[in-house]
Amino acid sequence: MLPEFKITQLRHFVWVAELKGFHVAAEKAHRTQPAISLSIRDLENKLGEALFEKRNSRTAKTELTPFGRHFLPRAKELIAHHDRIAEDMTLLAEHKTGHLRLASVPSIASRFLPELLLNFIGDSELHVSVFDDNSGAVLKMVENQQVDFGIASLFDEHDQSEKHFTPVWEDKLGVVCLKEHPLAASRELHWRELQQYRLISNGTSRLLAGSEAEPLLAHSQYYISNMISLIAMLEAGFGITTLPWYAFPRDNTRLTFIPLHTPVVTRRIGIIRLNNKSLPPPAQALVDFILAGQQD
């Protein structure tokens, strides 16, 4: 007979695994440590395997067994699926019209989504959750079905056969630096002109891969993934970076954007969804709305 899992027990297991301790997991669950231990023991009995290694001392961190490491992502998947259903049914019970979840790269989330969503939602009661992150994280959220669809770049479209990519926006790569920087007087730049300056790479720097400017990736000593931190470092005069035009903060008064003319590197951003999987009605309606707006 197959085991019947309790979501509460799965949550306890995930918390103990991630926090590496029964005591901290008990604090998070607002339960006693013996109660958490009993919950885990019952789950192990259902599975027929131990989930955690025996600890040698009270101070040792709790470590997963090989079976526990294999079970952890599946437990998370079950919890996420349960929570999505519970949330959707709660909204339905409260007479809401549905819940739309999407993930987007920050450049589109800040530059285009506010007006798009305002015009799309109107005065409806549609609930919307927007997650903004880099393209890699957006792809992961689409793959894990944490969102209905994503808005991002596919850096290797041939290696993403399980996803469908519909291009919507396009911009070009440029150099971002302080307005007082020696490069700021240039109308456009050759990539070799950047080599004498401290270069900060970021999540979009992979656009240079495969172009004649690829040596800049090895030349870069620093990497900053967060856009707020990257802008702060640029404003402090720490160095220069490359960014697509839509990622450049339009209201920034201290930085400037200089187009890169050699090579010309173009970024395509579009809608990413799983193949052979229908979108929920609100998500499909938003996709149709976005695509219709590009045809006007």
TrEMBL record:
GO terms for cellular component: cytosol. CDD domains: PBP2_LTTR_like_4. Residues 5-62 form the HTH lysR-type domain. SUPFAM superfamilies: Periplasmic binding protein-like II, Winged helix' DNA-binding domain. InterPro entries: HTH-type_LysR_regulators, LysR_HTH_N, LysR_subst-bd, WH-like_DNA-bd_sf, WH_DNA-bd_sf. The keyword Transcription regulation applies. Transmembrane segments: none annotated. One of its GO terms (molecular function) is DNA binding. Keywords: DNA-binding, Transcription, Transcription regulation. Pfam families: HTH_1 (PF00126), LysR_substrate (PF03466). PANTHER family: HTH-TYPE TRANSCRIPTIONAL REGULATOR YBHD, LYSR FAMILY TRANSCRIPTIONAL REGULATOR. Belongs to the LysR transcriptional regulatory family. This is LysR family transcriptional regulator. It comes from Oceanisphaera psychrotolerans. The lineage of its organism: Bacteria, Pseudomonadati, Pseudomonadota, Gammaproteobacteria, Aeromonadales.
